[in-house]
Specification:
The complex is a heterodimer of chains A (141) and B (189). Chain A is 18% helix and 26% strand. Chain A is α+β, with helices and mostly antiparallel strands and 141 residues long. Chain A has one domain. In chain A, the strands form two sheets. A six-stranded antiparallel beta sheet of chain A has the order 6-7-4-1-5-8. Chain A has a two-stranded antiparallel sheet with strand order 2-3. In chain A, strand 6 and strand 7 form a beta hairpin. The longest helix of chain A has 10 residues. The relative contact order of chain A is 0.27. In chain B, the strands form two sheets. Chain B has a five-stranded antiparallel beta sheet with strand order 3-4-5-6-7. Chain B has a two-stranded antiparallel sheet with strand order 1-2. The longest helix of chain B has 16 residues. Classes of the chains: A alpha+beta (141), B alpha+beta (189).
Amino acid sequence: MSYEDDDDTSIENNVVLWRRINPIWVNYDDNGNPFVTSQAFQNAKPENHEKIMIPAGYKHSPALSVAFSQKTSIDDYLAKTPGYYLVEFTAGEVRGLNQTIQETSLIDEPAHGSVIGNKKKNAVKKGFKRISRWVVAPDSK
Amino acid sequence: MEPLKKIENSNQHYPSALTGNEITQASPYAPCTETDNFDQPWGTINIFAKKQIVYRIRIGSEVPDWIHNVIAKLNEFLTLEENWDSYGAEKIDVNSTIFVFEMLTELIKIDITEPFIFPSNDGGIQMEWHKADVDFEIKINPDRNVEFLFDDDRNEFNSIEEEFVFIRSMLPTNFTQTVENFLSCVNNR
């Protein structure tokens, strides 16, 4: 299957993207500060991608799901996942990690977007942790 | 460190609906069974899943206390339902928990410290250490494939990102060398 992973250049670099964080992905460093595992920033499983994104008409490869912050609210985005945290990064920052971005609106998640690209490499893994800023943060210890 | 006590009649620790034979059938490729041969006295710890899986893991009679934290985490992971990350994640595969435990029983022998441990959206599990300006991650997949990376912010050791198929007691040299490099950083910085 050939994917269409081109970057949507109409999405400006200062656009803010959100990613929900299950608390199970959070732990604390030696200074008591919360950190998120790199596993929180991995692409969807291919099977799941084919079940949801392909029927919706999208042709990109399995990707990291995010939300366009200007199209939703914190309360709406976290409504179905009480207790989850929220991080943000900009479109420009993820492009700096050799990722592309597409708007991939879904019926039950109109603000949905996809960050596409290899996320197995160390530079990308560490990159997502570096660029992520807490929007809804766990308490420090 | 208090040695674990050997459990003489392990079946008493299984839910009544399960027996050792059923467990073996449920995980036919898992190597940690009562027929395993170990060269030292072994204690036994049970890993419980929420529903159908009960698995008995044998570990060394001398184990660090933090192993119980790992067991608690593994049990927690096994209770995660599909879509636990809200983005379509798979349930955590019981084989991943077993392989994590097997890997740790090897690493404990060389005094590895307690890992951070996280579930992955593909049913795998990742162990992480972030100490002494080093990031060390080991991702274990249900099919025994292991991905690991080591990154030293001080550049005293070369960074490495590799994969291998996990076979107990046959860890590849580049992996064991990486573990030793990590421990050297932790112990000497």
